[in-house]
Amino acid sequence: MSTYQQEMDQANRTLATQGDTWNGINPDYIARMRLQNRFQTGLDIARYTAKIMREDMAAYDRDPSQYTQSLGCWHGFIGQQKIISIKKHFDTTKGRYLYLSGWMIAALRSEFGPLPDQSMHEKTAVPALIAELYAFLRQADARELNHLFKELDAARGTGNQVTQKAALKKIDNFQTHIVPIIADIDAGFGNEEATYLLSKKMIEAGACCIQLENQVSDAKQCGHQDGKVTVPHEDFLAKINAVRYAFLELGVEDGVIVARTDSLGASLTQKIPVSQTPGDLNDQYNAFIDGEEITSLDQLHSGDMLLRRGNSNIKPTRLANGLVRFKPDTGVDRVILDCVTSLQNGADLLWIETEKPHLKQIASMVNRIREIVPDAKLVYNNSPSFNWTLNFRQQVFDTWSEEGRELSPYQREKLMSAQYDDSELAREADAQIQSFQRDAAQMAGVFHHLITLPTYHTAALSTDDLAKDYFGEQGMLAYVKKVQRQEIRQGLACVKHQDMAGSNIGDNHKEYFSGSNALKASGKDNTMNQFG
User: Which residue ranges traverse the bilayer (predicted)?
Assistant: First the structure.
């Protein structure tokens, strides 16, 4: 990033070439506007953030305690406030990303209204949300730099060189709000060409990391629901290639691909691939197909399929809709094959969709993958679809049972009950939840932890809390106590919502353009002055 003085020097050189005709242009203002618009295109963002992810992945390989995190968001403002909050509380955005959830786009962004997570929403909504998120993050940069420019002006007004240097140092060391976004492309919204075209739009909007799942595109289901149908590896690898070509075409050579497998909970396939040689990838996929051994053609009925497997003939088990069933209890083995194959064919990170947050389960799969690909790394969905409280209380209960501890005060199936909230078992479960991400990073190869739908739930919870009292007896006091007073006490910049929306940036631009004739909004009658 250029320094303030470097931008000033460049601006002066440009103005000098124009003689007197550009005398109304101030080099200070040019420098400021350029610094506030460092990322001019989505591709600038994608290249910048891809390098961040690659550096973070390398740091994790050296030290698994250096895992990364993100929260899902469905609106630019939500993403902006998360990164502002991270900078406020931790002084750095290192290791913190944003996650763009296809589930939340379907539920909250579709013109059809709320939809289930089945790729029925408009595919254009995905790159549109990426662009929106980065528009808000860039505006956060402009707003914060705007305040630093005011500090510089004040320092210049005092004539104190030390104060001026300190103000310039803050500007030159400014940390951007631009962070990587892991963007969900579902199953690609069509064939490999459709995946490529949508990937390009996502990358052009700023995505440095695209997450792709191995379900059938037109039968896609939420990863935590039933009815999932997976595709053969050759189909999935073609889509991985499509995403990689999109990155390379657009010059984002560090682009990151997350290969997600839903095989653990998927019991069906739509297609039996053609094996070219015994033991090839398609043959391995077909080995998981469930079926009945056929010794005579008389055992076949009209429309039945026949699959040659080794020295046997198998009639695959098919549903009435034509889908083919996998053998029971093969999910883990299919996950391992999926993951190894994806990493060996262009994917960078893995996502294993699980039915519960269980450290030993995740570690057991990752350890098998790492026997073949030693540096395999996971993105793990810390999903709100899991009942975290019940799962971990039951895990503690089971561990204590194996240890022979006294469990008569507890009923395993009722451990969600509030009566256990202050119990020793609940405290131990909470401690394990608290350390889950750290432990999974160390023991189960999880490079990145995300929560897919946090703001969906926080919005519902906070709205319920406010509505209950505002429309009840507290009236306006409910808003003042629960919202505004808390914003003030906790130092949330958003309490000055006019400034957050860009009013002060606009005032400065008016001054740049019109000088003393500028009609500004930030005068003495602006009620935002009440907030100091």
Answer: none
Cα–Cα nearest to 415, from 404, 429, 405: 429
Whether pTM exceeds 0.85: yes
Counting Cβ atoms within 10 Å, is residue 177 exposed (0-12), middle (13-18) or buried (19+)? buried
User: What are the two backbone dihedrals, phi and then psi, of residue 378, each rounded to the nearest 5 degrees?
Assistant: -110, 150
Name the H helices within 63-160: 76-90, 102-108, 125-158
* Rounded Cα distance, 113 and 66, in Å: 40
Describe the chain by its helix, strand, coil percentages, rounded to 5.
50, 10, 35
Q: How many Å apart are CA 458 and CA 381, to the nearest integer? A: 17
Which two structure tokens, joined as six digits, stand for 315?
């009639």
CA distance 193 to 215: 16
Regarding beta strands 324-325 and 268-269, do their DSSP bridges make them parallel or antiparallel, or are they unpaired?
A: antiparallel
The 10s digit of each residue's pLDDT in 148-198 is: 999 999 999 999 999 999 999 999 999 999 999 999 999 999 999 999 999
- Residues whose CB is less than 8 angstroms from the CB of residue 448 and which lie 6 or more positions away in sequence, other chains included: 67, 68, 69, 70, 97, 182, 349, 377, 378, 379, 380
The half-sphere exposure of 215 on its side-chain side, counting CA atoms within 13 A, is 30
- Active-site annotation, residues: 222
Which residue's entry shows tokens 């060409």? 193
Buried b (16+ CB within 10 A) or exposed e, 201-235: bbbbbbbbbbbbbbbbbebbbbbbeeebbbbbbbb
Asked if 450 and 209 touch (Cβ cutoff 8 Å), the reply is no
Closest by CA to 71, choosing from 58, 61, 85, 50, is: 85
Strand order in the sheet with 312-316: 291-293, 312-316, 307-309
Sheet holding 268-269, edge to edge: 229-230, 268-269, 324-325
The domains of the chain, with CATH numbers, are 1-36 (no CATH), 40-268+331-403+438-452 (3.20.20.60), 467-531 (no CATH)
- How far lies 526's CA from each of 88, 198, 523, in Å? 26, 45, 6
Whether 36 contacts 406, CB under 8 Å: no
Q: Whole-angstrom Cα distance, residue 242 to residue 191? A: 10
What CA–CA distance (Å, rounded) separates 400 from 179? 42
How far, in Å, CA of 232 to CA of 214, rounded? Answer: 8
Tokens of 88: 């406020």
How far, in Å, CA of 305 to CA of 303, rounded? Answer: 7
Overall size of the chain counted in residues: 532
Q: What is the pLDDT of residues 388-441, one digit of tens each?
A: 999 999 999 999 999 999 999 999 999 999 999 999 999 999 999 999 999 999
CA–CA distance, 417 with 411 (Å, rounded to integer): 10
Q: How many helices (H) and strands (E) does the chain have?
A: 19, 14
> 430-453, pLDDT tens digit by residue?
999 999 999 999 999 999 999 999
Token pair, residue 406, equals 């006294």
In this prediction, residue 117 has a pLDDT band, given cuts at 50, 70 and 90, of confident
Structure tokens that stand for 438 in this block: 């750290």
Write the DSSP assignment of 173-188 as a string of letters: TPPPS---EEEE-TT-
